[in-house]
Structures are given as C-alpha cells and as structure tokens.
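Data deposition worksheet. Section B asks for the primary sequence of the deposited chain exactly as it was used as input, without tags or linkers unless they were present during the calculation. Section C holds the resulting structure in token form. Section D is free text for depositor observations; keep each observation to a single sentence. Incomplete worksheets are returned to the depositor.
Section A, Depositor: J.P.
Section B:
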Amino acid sequence: MNNINYFLSADDVSLPYYKFEPDNEVKSAIILVYEIFGITSHIKNFAKILASKGYLVYVPDIFHRIEKNVNLEYNQEGFKEGLSLKEKIGWDYPVMDIVALGSLLKQKYKVTCYGFCFGGSVAWRASQKSFLFDNAICYYGSSIPDFLDKKINNPVMVHFGKLDSGIPEDKILNVKSFSKDQNFKVEIYEYDGADHGFNCEDRKSYNAEASKSALERSIAFIDNHND
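Section C:
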C-alpha cells in the first residue's frame, strides 16, 4: 500500500513523499532515496519489496524543489536530464530534506537511509552531516569517493559493481582506506560481473545475482543494527 503525503523540510518547504507500509508489524523504518531518474517504477517496486519484509518505507521526492513528478527513462536522454537536475539541486537540500523526513519516523522507529546511485551518495553524505540515522545502505554512489572529508556518524554498508567504470578500483580503495579509521563500522562489498545500476531490473546492467546478494546483506545489516 502506498500513498502520497507531504512533510515540511527544515526551511518550511512542503515536499511530497510516497509511503509504503508492511501488512504486519513494523520492524523499523527506511528512507529510500532514488537515483537521478526520480520516482520510477523500479523505486516503487523496491519500496514494496522492503515493505513486504516488514519495514515502513518513505520515498521523498527530493527533486520536487526544482521539478515536480520526475520519472525519467533509463536511457541516455534520461541520464542527461537527471544529471542536470542533480547538479541544480546540489547536496545540501537533499540531505536536509531526508533528515527532516527521517526525524518524523525517528520519533517512533529506528531509521535506515537507503539509497541508489545519486541516492546512495546522499545517504553517505547524510551519514556524515547528521546524527539522525541508525544506519545507512549505499548502492553504487559515484560521489562517495569525493566525500571522504568527514567522519561517518552511523554504521554504513556500501555496494559497488566491479565493472562500474564510474567508480574505478582506485577510488574504491580510497573509500576502503577512509573506512578503516571510523567510529562506526563501514562494510564494503564489490560484485563480480556487476556494473553501475546492477540492482535495477529496468536497466541493461541489471544483475540478478548481485541484486539478490546485496539485498540479503542489506536486510541482515539493518536488522542487526536495529535490534
């Protein structure tokens, strides 16, 4: 079940979010942060999967400040438009917005920040710039290697594809080195034969084996840190 709701961010701007509820008791809550392609069927389907596993999932529309109802195709044109939106909105507003939404959930639940691509980098950055989240899951966030300037404030799990040319091995090694000197555990996994976007069934790079393994690890990670 999902519906559109609205929340006020820290600067009093009203933003929409999609709500996905489990059928039974809520184990914990998740803020799911989308890719540069917006609220796609893939993101909604993944939110439903998480809800089916017992999580209350909120999906904020973080591009809403600059463009409403973004839902781009997974092609070159969609990529260019999404990249433009990402550059326009920057990093501060998305981090502020997901923390504001997460604070509503935090009143009752432990909260995970779970992001893909752009959203994975946002989840990483939010783990550095806020103290709200209990843990974070970051899938192939290409900007993560650029954000090694602040300590991590919660446990984090990171998933990279070994074929992802946008996040080459030398950058992953930098993230691994950074992660050794943290107050919270950072788990990093690399997947053979997996490219950028390997979790998305609507992309050519979809890798069912890597997707299944990453989800299983992520669920165990969330439950372990939210007990």
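Section D:
DSSP finds six helices and eight strands in the chain.
Residues 87 and 211 are 28 Å apart (CA to CA).
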